[in-house]
Each structure stands twice: as C-alpha cells, then as structure tokens.
Amino acid sequence: PILYSYFRSSCSWRVRIALALKGISYDLVPVNLIKDGGQQFSAEFKALNPMQQVPALKIDGITLSQSLAIINYLEETHPHPRLLPQDPKKRAQVRMIADHIASGIQPLQNLGVLKQMGEKKTEWAQNCITSGFQALEQILQNTAGRYCVGDEVSMADLCLVPQVANAERFKVDMGPYPTITRINKALLELEAFKISHPSRQPDTPAELRA
User: Fold this and answer.
1) Is residue 201 part of a domain?
2) How many CB atoms lie within 10 A of CB 61?
3) What residues pair up with 124 in beta bridges, in sequence order?
4) For 95-112, what is each residue's pLDDT tens digit?
5) What average pLDDT does the structure give for the chain?
C-alpha cells in the first residue's frame, strides 16, 4: 500500500491510525498542502485524487480517497482488530460520531475554508469546533466507556483524536468538554495513536518533531 498523506492533516491521521491498529505496513508519500502553492493541486496528484485532497491510499490495485471510505475498506479486508462493533446499535453510534466529526466539524475548519476566512480564520475555526464539541460532549456522555463507544477502540476514536489536536492548535478552551478530554488522553496512550501522530511523520518539520 502507498499512503499519500500530510503530517498535519487530520483526515490523513485517521487513516494512519487505522493502518497502525491493523498492522498494515505501507509506504508514505508526503503531499505538502502549503508548499509550492499546495502540492495537492499538481496535475500528477489530481490524476490520483480529483478532489485534490489527502489522504489517498493505493491498495489492492485500486486508489481510494476519503478517510472514512478508506477505513471502511480496511475494516472489510482486514477485520482484526475490529473498528466497527458487532452490535448494530453500537455500530450505528460509532458511525454517527465519526460522521459528526468528519462531516459536521472538520470540513468547516479545514485549510481550504480557512484560506477564504482571511484574518477571521482563528475565530471561525474556534466557533466551528466549539459548536461541534458542545454536541459531541453530550453524545459521548451517553455512549462512552473508556473510549467513544464502550471500551473498544472504534472508527469514532480515529476521528476524535485528530479533531482534538485541531482544537488545541486553534486554542479552543477544552474545559467544557471533560468526556472528550478524558477519552482523548486514554487514546493517546495507545501505541497506534503515538506512532501515527503528526509529530512523528517523515514529513514533520524539525521544529514540530516529538
């Protein structure tokens, strides 16, 4: 497998965690979203992913984009350890939380949107994350055990940790979100989350390395 990734991309980080949890080794090709006006806009990368976004994963003779689609494919082809619970209700909760973050928070504060916001980009990002986290905190109070849904790591957790990192980067006050904070802390102790962390990638700038 070849993963096209950017160290700081939260969507890429989700996929790196999934690959690490499932023990799938891969080659990483960095795509710098800022350098050269954004390497994702090159003709070469557009041919790979017409949406001109990371991540993209070449695997089993196909190229996949969209992090949740990639994670679902990995789940179906490498079912252990499981990232979607067997219980239909818990599985629905996992997908709900993953979608809440991947559709309801992250796209509103990603690089493309922030460029449009100009000087208000930090305020915009904070507002998007805060409103999303207010809802997420309430949801997690009903679903969480040790992690987002019960005591097993799931696709929801793969979305949560990168989004909390975004929140911290934009200096969001995490005080009102004790459940999110507790789960995030527990997840960051797991090896798969450590090795996939933005501070430990081949393309991480020296000053941001762990």
Assistant:
1) no
2) 5
3) none
4) 999 999 999 999 888 888
5) 96
